[in-house]
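Fig. S4 source data, part A: sequence.
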Amino acid sequence: MWVFSILHQHKLLLVWTRRLQQPGLISRMGSQFVSYHVSAALRCPEDRIIKPVVKRQRWQDRERSVQGKAWRNETPELQKQTQRRTDGSRVSSELRKLCLDDFPAEREKLVRERSTPESGAENHETVFGIAPCLLALTHGRRKAHKLFVKDGETSNRSSVVKVCEEAHRRGVQVHRVSKKDLDKMSSGRVHQGVCLQASPLRYLTEDSVPQRSDNRPPLWLVLEEIQDPMNLGAILRSAYFLGVDRVASSLHDSCPLSPVVSKASSGVMEVFGVYGYENLEDMLRLKASQGWQVVGTVGTEAEESHVIPVTQCSDFQLTKPTLLLMGGEGEGLSKELLSLCQTLLSIPAGRELFPGIESLNVSVATGILLHSLLSTR
């Protein structure tokens, strides 16, 4: 019975082969023929070289011949488009990567093209906090790009709504994001639910000095090498609140006007410009020649080591244009600037001090000295 079944299958295949040679039947039965041939071959693996396979191969060759004639009849432009489409589909992303690995120069060129900003693109930084973002928007010293607000109940707070309204008024896009995104933008600092993507602020350059309308003597605060952004922000906040006319800073070894400084100043940095000088000595000499007095600061432990007279801040009277100099966190004022001072001020201690804690934080000392001097103006 099994031998009879095989012979019967051979006979059926030959019959189907003759019928499939008819043109009208090929188009109707193409898919059925392929399916039957595969199933028959699977049933009888030893019969895979039977003639239906040859017939099917001839039929496929005839189809390719017809497609070739149609291809030659197409227009040259269509041939080019099809060729480009076919070539592009043959190259996988992995193969393109391997090609770049084989040509390091091309790979480096591609990296440069991706990393180079577009022409006209502007650097930006992220301002964070309610007051810094609001003041940055209202005063317009920065070019604001996007405002990011924490999604949820925080966006309904009146202070946050005010920031969003100001952003809408100035055409700045507002995006609602998660707290995790805001934490990442502000590097984990306290952002109060808002971050503003904007252009950075720079130190201002020297310009003409405006005259005071009330004829009171002006006071400039001069900072030498303040490196802690928290200190700089606190100093700016006190100087603005107490009425300092200008804040000047050395550009060398001083911290930049960063978003951290803006947040520490509660947004004062967005309103109160800070002037930067490459050489503070030249500026001090120029102002001294114009009749300004140069006043330095020292701690109580250094009062006896200076030739220049040291005066307690409570005894000093601000009667003429004055430059108040504050040194950095580490060593205080440099010898070069101390040599230009006409007098030195100190803050008296209220008790007997233990060794090692005889001084104040520079931002705290600046606030005390400014209040003492400006209250006498």
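Fig. S4 source data, part B ends here. The CA atoms of residues 24 and 30 lie 11 Å apart.
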